[in-house]
Amino acid sequence: MGLNVMLARICFYVFAFCLVALSLNPQAWAARGDRWTQVSEVPLDTSQSSTLIDLRALSGSFMAFRMRVVGGTVKFNELKLNYSDGSFYAADQAFELRNGESTKVLDFFRRGRFINSVRLSYVVVQGTEPRVQIHGLQSWRGRRAQRPAGEQYVKSDEAPPLPTSTTQVLPQATGGLLVASKYVTFHGDHDKIKVAKEMGKFGRVRIQVRDEDVYLNSFKIVYADGTENTHKIDLHIPEGRTTDWVDIDGARFIDHLELSYRKKPGFEGHARIEVMGEHAEGWLSETGEGGKFNDGWILLGAQSAGFVGFDTDIIPVGEHVSGFKEIRVVVRDRAITLNQLRVVYGNGDEDIIPVRTRIDAGGAFGPVDLRHAPRRIKEIQARYRSRFIDQAARGKGAAVVEVWARR
What we know:
Structural class: mainly beta
Number of helices: 3
Number of strands: 24
Radius of gyration: 24 Å
Shape: globular
Strand content: over 45%
Order of helices and strands: HHEEEEEEEEHEEEEEEEEEEEEEEEE
């Protein structure tokens, strides 16, 4: 038997042994993957209104966080994650968590960062000893990452000033509807993103970036009647961040956006560019244009659905006097698991709709009749996640979840 054949057999037996060993020890497989870990649990003093949770002693870097409340109901007016490099994530609207509820995945960043602290401003609505838990998502490499010595004692509790040049990091923003999205490869220096007419008319938009950094030169809005406006940006947008809101002509439907950015020769990755928008004034009103299209169905909210755990999106509904009678959930691009719908009315009453069902891309859940309709809706909370395994998915990205309502 030749030496090469003997070496090949030895390698095969070693490989087979490793497979058997790992099959007998599933924890070894889990140790290689991404893992959620509870990194802190602190009581919320009912006599106080804010707290700073120091996390500088944590080992490793984290890709994302989520927050859970135990033992009561708490309204949070501020949530800010402060990182060792001086960057931060801040929620731009208040939200409420009931006993056992968690936030959506916060500030996902694949390469990971070192967390310094979490700043919370809150009001205890119910309960005498509520506690807040902080959970962090770590990769195998993140669990072994060493915090740079020069970053250990960086004080990042104070928010850095707003960007004044393309070298500064933009704060992450939330809110708005996902109007349209597209994956770009940077092989060229421009792209077109089509906007479906049924999405509505919008008074302002912003550009959000996922998966990879983008240097955006400008974007042009081309309206359905052929008129157009160009908005200069000239800004480096890190992945997971966004531009500021840009006011546009809310009297016209958008046909598409044309993006101009710096291409990356030899780069094989891609970025997901999302166009976020807020409906034009009056679109939701009883006499507005919104009810004249789509058989009376009006889009209330649209977001990407995360893969890790269940996202809970809080969808504020714009001002409207007359209420709605029914709602439905529409899914695009990839199947989701829908876990719950919570409808909060203008007077504070709620309808909780337990679901736990799969909705395929292109499918819908509902319509669901609202109690004592028509009801003026303050917000809708939808809890869902994208499904990893979906042979019919369009591309590798997350699902888009839309919530519609009709009078």
